[in-house]
Amino acid sequence: MDLWIAEILKNYPHSIFLLKEIGSPIVAFVVALIASYLQYNQWRTSRNSLSLSLFEERFDIYQKLMLVINDRNSTEFNSELSHYFYGVAIHKAQFLFNKETYEFLILISNMLSSHREIFSQWQQIENRNGIVTEEQQNLAEQKRLLSAEIDEYCKKIPGYFDGTMNFSKI
Q: Which residue range(s) make up the domain with 74?
């Protein structure tokens, strides 16, 4: 192998100068390619990290929404979780979701607030006496109708969240 290189140098003495002239740009080009590849990977990792962070924030709001919806008929409905949902989560949703999903969350939030008020009124008059009054019947009917409406909107939740959270890919 060494003889072969020596033979080339003997027959073509200008090849050393050519190698010196072309060699440094080739090395610089290879270094630039490697640096570009590393930078691209860093950018891709950063983008994936941002996507994961957004997904986690959105999923947190989704989970809290589902908990509040599922607990709407329990005595714990006025817990910290529901207050967190109405305060912090809805405010955060404005920045995390598209306008359509955010407006849907506001609608659900308003319906759940109304449900919470009816439920609170129901609890206040429920223990007055053993006789069912007309007021109790009206509240029970309002609560039933609102629960049915909330249940209908609950069927739409995956459709609203799927576009921003890609539930179909989980």
A: 52-169
